[in-house]
Amino acid sequence: MSDRFVFKGTQEDIEQQFNVRTERSDFFESHFNITPGSRITVVYQEEERKIYQFRWGLIPPDAEEERAGNENYETTLDAIEENEWLTECLSKRRCLIPAHGFYKWKTTEKKSTPFFIRLLSNELMAMAGIYSIWKSSTGRDVYSCAVLTTEANALIQPVGDKMPVILDTEQYTAWLGEDQLDEQKLNRLIKPYPMSKMAVNRVSEEVNDTDNNNPELIQPIPK
């Protein structure tokens, strides 16, 4: 994974793909350089399937302020199994994070080169996540989330050793369901996405500046 991703798509497309409805059109604004600590659009399940905006970065239950979760923007299955709080999140609070793609940087001794990684179909991907509900000092419930990562597939490995867990549409119900996932089910879901369905493109170093947020950031440039 990396600490940036892209969200774009029409409200109609997202509602149809994730089988969810909302009157909040502001949940569907495009962002081309999302960073931890941002509010991001998330699909999750309570009494019914819902879509809302969570803070990206799991806020620990004993945190004194929201920004304490900014470093917890991603996690792995191994890390979850070693932490009782994260284990509870995986067991009871799983979510989907729609994304058009994500950035990774290939680092050498001389420079760091950004790449944009997306589905070959150019469609929205669904990154698997977990979420938590933190209560602020004023009694407000704050929903926060982290992306679950796994080892990178062969296409992404030259750029980095991890990638988000990406789920196909037929896997959404199992991931969002209230049933606890046993080891066998987790192994079917938490695995590298097929490289044959993905594309990796070098992009402009303009993405390095977190203040930049425009469609040109994801345009391929010659290697």
Automatic annotation (TrEMBL):
Pfam families found in the cross-reference section: SRAP
EC number: 3.4.-.-
Lineage: superkingdom: Bacteria
Gene3D superfamilies: SOS response associated peptidase-like
Keywords: Covalent protein-DNA linkage, DNA damage, DNA-binding, Hydrolase, Lyase, Protease
Annotated segments matching region Disordered: 204-223
SUPFAM superfamilies: BB1717-like
Family membership noted in the UniProt record: Belongs to the SOS response-associated peptidase family.
Protein's recorded name: Abasic site processing protein
